[in-house]
Amino acid sequence: MNTPFFALPPSTIFEDGCSRRDSETRLLDRVDQQGQRLAVIHQASRGISVPRSYQRHPRFEAASRQLAATGLPVDVRLSGGGVVPQAAGVINLHLAYPVQANYPLQQVEAHYLGLCELIAQALVACGIHATPQPVQGSFCDGRFNLAVAGKKIAGTAQYWRRNRTAATPTFSLLSHAVILVNANSAELTDMANRFEAALHSPVRYLPEKTTSVIELLGSPASDFEPTLLQALRNPPL
């Protein structure tokens, strides 16, 4: 049996006025110092989350100002991937925990699959069967999406940071997911496309490539977060 994750209240990590990147760094700092397996479940305010690589785009600052002026602020995160829209009904799961490793690349896939399995367990409790797979045309596509009938319902990402205070080779891993629960997937796709358009990028995402729990069930899922918390008590990773 794997060690359960200790769930932190979102307000202890994601404070108002603090960037996502700084909040995630604070979470990893706690892992470095305490060696705990931590989890945070939260719904972010409406906006766009992007990896640090987007900051190198020549129009990034202008695009960020343009979207912020329309009520869609852009925030930078630690992990890679692509554009991720945030809105009510989008559940963010952040897992942060120590991993003993000399070469973390050898363990990346196993930790992705463990995260996918954990989320899939919570979705099964809602009557939804999802599997890891890429979904071409969805926003922030990747090998370790979770999809239902070819439509993305969750995306995952990682960020590994060496713990330089540990006595043995150890990394603190941020393994996180965005799960579309009580959200409008077409609206989210439009938000992501607005950011790409502001960058003058030719990339556009397809609304028919994503779905959500509420769209699959036809009614809101009121107990998804408690179900996810239960899965964290007996995690597959």
Automatic annotation (TrEMBL):
Q: Highest taxon of the source? A: Bacteria
Ranges where the BPL/LPL catalytic domain occurs: 33-225
Whether Transmembrane helix counts among this entry's keywords is no
Provide this UniProt record's keywords sorted from A to Z. Answer: Ligase
Q: Which GO terms describe its molecular function?
A: ligase activity
Name of the protein described by the UniProt record: Lipoate-protein ligase A
